[in-house]
Design a protein that fits this description.
Low-confidence stretches: none
Number of domains: 1
Order of helices and strands: HHHHHHH
Largest sheet: none
Number of helices: 7
Number of strands: 0
Shape: globular
Radius of gyration: 15 Å
Helix content: 40-55%
Distance between the termini: 33 Å
Strand content: under 5%
């Protein structure tokens, strides 16, 4: 069974050395994980969602209807310059619905991504070794 994104990031932050962190990232490679890392660390990705703590109600850990590996495709609606035809309030509503539908710890990961908070224990060098050419800036 694949791990949640927050579990992978926790494992990376607990890893002792760079090679172990790279191994964990490679073993758990998903588009959702790479999207979170890029969204957090790449300055070319700018968000239309306001930074800070959004007003949402997290779902229960054991009872979330979907997960981040299915919902990460919605990130495209939150990137500056894409989907200009969709009003900002619709994008923000979609964002809140996503947060309320995924595991609450993954919701925190997404909020940190929007706030450009780099995942703990991950450096640019580690990302470049694990996922070459992921970061554009």
């Amino acid at each position: 069974m694949k791990k949640y994104i927050f579990e992978v990031l926790e494992d990376v932050s607990k890893a002792k050395d760079k090679s172990e962190k790279i191994k964990i990232l490679k073993e758990n490679e998903t588009w959702a994980l790479k999207d979170v890392i890029r969204g957090s660390m790449d300055s070319t990705v700018q968000w239309v969602i306001p930074t800070g703590e959004p007003p949402y109600t997290p779902c229960e850990e054991h009872n979330h209807p979907t997960d981040l590996k299915r919902q990460n495709t919605k990130f495209q609606y939150f990137v500056e310059g894409l989907h200009k035809d969709q009003p900002k309030f619709k994008k923000e509503r979609m964002f809140l619905q996503m947060l309320e539908g995924i595991h609450p710890k993954d919701a925190v990961v997404v909020i940190n991504m929007i706030n450009k908070t780099k995942p703990k224990g991950i450096t640019r060098g580690i990302v470049e070794k694990a996922f070459p050419s992921l970061l554009q800036d």
